[in-house]
Every structure is written in C-alpha cells, then in structure tokens.
Amino acid sequence: MLVHDIPEGEVWLTSCGRDVTNKKPTEISITKVKQFEGSSSFVRRSQWSLDQLRQVNGIDPNRDCPEFDLTFENAFDQWVAGSAGDKCMFVQVLHNTCQRYSAERKPEFVNCQSKLLGGNSILHSAADSVSSAVQKASQALNERGERLGRVEEKTGDMMNSAQQFADTAHKLAMKHKC
Q: At the top level of its lineage, which domain of life is listed (predicted)?
C-alpha cells in the first residue's frame, strides 16, 4: 500500500510481511521504504517487528480519511494512505494479523471504524467481488466454448457437404466427358 509521510510528503510503501501458510511465521515486520523520483526501486528506511507495534490510531472513526498514526516501542510515525479505502484495507489486515500472530501484548487500535475491527468485512467484500467476477467470466467462457463447439460442428457439416458436392460434380463431369 502506498502511503505518504506527512512531514516531508515523500512516498513510502508499508507492508505486513507474513507467510501464506497456516503456520505462524517466524517474524512479521512492518517495513517503511522510500521510492526516489524517477526510480522504480525502493530503499528500506525503517523496519519494526509486529511485536513492537503499540498503537494504531485511525485519527477519526466518523469520517473516511486516509490519515493514520502508528506508534511503536521507540517510534511514532504519521501516515497518509493513497486513499481512505487503502487505509481501511491496511488497518483491517494489520488488525487481523495482530489478533492472529501478536505474542502476549496486542497493539491498541484507537479511533478506527468498528467495521474494520469486527471481522473481515472489507476482505470478504473484496473476495465476494472477485468470486462474482470469476463466476461471470467462467460462465461467459463456458458459453463461448458452447458457441465454438456449434461453429465447429457446422464447419464439419459444411466440409462434408462441400466434399459431397465436389464428388458429385466430378462424377457428373466424367459422365458428360464420355
């Protein structure tokens, strides 16, 4: 997720690193990186383990805004996500990750919309949307396959008819030649 550092207006990428398996990853990190103008690569600036995260402040739970703060053991950072939707997705993924993998002390989530902390609403909504799109694409693909099958069948019939016509024309030509 692209976010901007408030004081300097620089572009940063923040990510939650985690394994795709069901096993607990050895370490989960939140990494702050910088992308320099004109470059496609990123440079790591700071990195914190998930266990160092103390507080996620959503700034205002009553309005959709892209700003949020992260407080770590020895650091405080102000962030602005690319959009309010990006912030919501990040906060929800971060909350779910903390609930699942944080050791003894879970970070505090303050001023965050309750829908982000109560479950997987945004994630489920995105998954449902993707699932619906996949189902529609699959149905369209099946229908296209059926139409192609009918066209292939008609093409075969036309080839047989053309061959029969050619054979009949050849026989007729041979008959009139004699």
A: Eukaryota
